[in-house]
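User: Can you help me understand a structure? I only have the sequence.
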Amino acid sequence: MTNRICGVHAVYEALVSRHQPIERIHIARETHSGKLKQIVDLARECGVPIRKEDRATLDRMAHGEVHQGVVAVSAEVPYSDFDVLFKPDKPVVVVLDGVEDPHNLGAVIRTAEACDASGVVVPERHSAPLSATVVKTSAGASVYVPIVRVKNLVVAIDELKRRGLWIVGIDVGGTRDWTGFDYRGPVALVFGGEHRGLRRLVREHCDVLVRLPMLGKIASLNISVAAGVVLYEVVRQRQKSAG
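Assistant: Let's start by predicting it. Here is the structure, written out as tokens:
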């Protein structure tokens, strides 16, 4: 199965990381930006074929995605093994309970990479696949952050707990504010899906539930925004501790 990577940043990061095999790159004939020249140079260095195309061809290949004059064809983005999550001494794992919008998944992956998270865990069912949309929205971060897909999210959470991680669920029914937990140790942050939040069984397997106060009339934040708020609190606490 092939995958389309659209946009200069996503294609550039895929080439630089070399984590995702690129079969070929299609570039618009009339485009001559500096970033595209870097992509061409990198592709030649890696032995990746380059094809010049007209805009209409790239539009068809991108299936509605914004391609900025470049589309790479690669093998499907690979999922990582569960054990990779425990490489750091104090892992920060992002667990997503049913995020089905590929734009949201890509945005969470991008934030996870920016905050140096150990990886992102998603279930096999009720989760967006690692599509071209996810790769594009992540701005290339999906090639750096391990994405682990599991059959049963509750079983995976229990295994994270068994290996020494505190399981922190982000939920409107949380007993304390998101800043009231000590994230300096190994933690897994569990976020619910776009429409239903955390499922009951997932919620019950968390060690603690924290909340993000909603002071306006809207009942919840977008999942990627919520993930950013909590992840940067983890970063803040750890940097303060280190300093």
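Now, to help you interpret it: The radius of gyration is 19 Å. The mean pLDDT is 89. Let me know which part you'd like to focus on.
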